[in-house]
Amino acid sequence: MEVHRRRAEREGAFPTHAFSTGLILTLLLGAWAAHALEMSTGKIPFLVAVNGSTVLLPCTYASCIGIKNLYFNWQFNANGTMEKLCESTIPYEGVEPHVSVFHERVEFVGNTPSNNISILLANITFEDDGEYTCFGRNPKEKFKNHSAIFTLSVVDELRVVDNTLTIIIASAVGGGIALLMGFMLLKNLTIFVLAKMEEKNKECLVTSSGIDNTENGLSGSKGDSKATPKKK
Ligand SMILES: *[C@@H]1O[C@H](CO)[C@@H](O)[C@H](O)[C@H]1NC(C)=O
Ligand SMILES: *[C@@H]1O[C@H](CO)[C@@H](O)[C@H](O)[C@H]1NC(C)=O
Ligand SMILES: *[C@@H]1O[C@H](CO)[C@@H](O)[C@H](O)[C@H]1NC(C)=O
Ligand SMILES: *[C@@H]1O[C@H](CO)[C@@H](O)[C@H](O)[C@H]1NC(C)=O
Ligand SMILES: *[C@@H]1O[C@H](CO)[C@@H](O)[C@H](O)[C@H]1NC(C)=O
């Protein structure tokens, strides 16, 4: 999906803000049009959750021509049969909708100021696994249909499989950093050793010259000759 979207973006065929799933569906419906209503289930329109948990099914709408009597609903695709979870009509922008909920574990948690029409699905079971469609229709647009899909995967525990890629990336990055640190340590160590060796050589030179200086009674030049090579 991500790959398809990336390619689509590159080719400039679709707007970058449209998401693959919603886009494909709307294209199938033949209802997509620029500057129209847009339903969005977020940048990551899927979620893997453990049975028994409560999940947020996110959805927002956007319309640059404004809304009037915007009808929306949430539907669950239960083996091909669309089961309506809730529905409502937003008369005007800024008006809180009165939402009719048809599912005992669904709660509407959206809010009008942010065009948010998300729902909460409580105590999920394995039967809740599947596709949820956030549907919208703005009468201002001659009743064109718009929708976005959110996919919920219910698992009995969050498996390692989901983290494989993360682990690979983490270990690659970690390995890279370790390598870099190792290299830098080695470099620093080499520099340190070289400096020590140089210092030792210098000190040897200084000491020997110092002895000469002392013997010659030129104590000041001893300090100078010692300080100057150390700076290099
Ligand atoms: C989730 O499903 C597993 C396997 O069926 C079960 O053992 C577990 O109790 C369930 N957890 C919850 C919170 O329902
Ligand atoms: C979907 O179909 C499967 C297998 O036919 C069945 O086990 C399951 O209960 C069905 N789910 C719903 C929500 O109807
Ligand atoms: C979810 O399950 C908990 C514990 O079983 C129960 O108290 C709560 O009422 C359930 N919530 C819904 C919305 O069914
Ligand atoms: C929509 O509202 C819900 C509940 O208040 C919140 O958790 C979610 O982040 C909101 N989504 C957006 C896109 O604002
Ligand atoms: C929009 O969806 C409704 C069902 O919700 C359907 O009856 C209607 O024909 C659809 N309209 C278009 C233009 O696809």
Please report the distance between the alpha carbons of the first and last residues: 58 Å
Fraction of residues in H or I helices: 25-40%
Which quaternary structure do these chains form? single chain
Q: List the total number of helices.
A: 4
Instruction: Give the strand line-up of the largest sheet.
Output: 2-11-10-5-6-7
Give the radius of gyration.
34 Å
Q: How many beta-strand elements?
A: 11
CATH architecture of one domain: Sandwich
Q: Label the overall shape.
A: elongated
Along the chain, the helix and strand elements come as: HHEEEEEEEEEEEHH
Residue-averaged pLDDT? 75
State the CATH superfamily name of one domain: Immunoglobulins
- Report on the biggest sheet: 6 strands, mixed
Percentage beta strand: 25-35%
CATH topology of one domain: Immunoglobulin-like
What would CATH call the class of one domain? Mainly Beta
Bound molecules: 2-acetamido-2-deoxy-beta-D-glucopyranose
Q: Which structural class should the secondary elements be placed in?
A: alpha+beta
What is the topology?
Elements (H helix, E strand, L loop, with lengths): L1 H10 L8 H10 L8 E3 L5 E5 L4 E3 L2 E3 L5 E11 L2 E12 L7 E2 L4 E3 L10 E3 L8 E8 L7 E11 L5 H56 L2 H13 L1
Parallel strand pairs: 2-11
Antiparallel strand pairs: 1-4, 3-9, 5-6, 5-10, 6-7, 8-9, 10-11
Bound molecules: 2-acetamido-2-deoxy-beta-D-glucopyranose (5 copies).
Explain this structure:
The protein has 232 residues and is α+β, with helices and mostly antiparallel strands. Among the domains are: 35-155, Immunoglobulins (Immunoglobulin-like, Sandwich), CATH 2.60.40.10; 162-202. It is 38% helix and 28% strand. The protein is built from 4 helices and 11 strands. The protein has helices spanning 2-11, 20-29, 161-216, 219-231; strands at residues 38-40, 46-50, 55-57, 60-62, 68-78, 81-92, 100-101, 106-108, 119-121, 130-137, 145-155. The strands form 3 sheets. A 6-stranded mixed β-sheet has the order 2-11-10-5-6-7, with helices on one face. A hairpin with a 2-residue loop joins strand 5 and strand 6. Helix 3 (161-216) packs antiparallel against helix 4. The chain is elongated and about 85 Å long. It starts with a helix and ends with a helix. 19% of the residues are buried. Residues 5-19, 21-34 and 202-232 have low confidence and may be disordered. The protein binds 2-acetamido-2-deoxy-beta-D-glucopyranose (NAG) (5 copies). Residues 29, 31, 143-145 line the site of one 2-acetamido-2-deoxy-beta-D-glucopyranose.
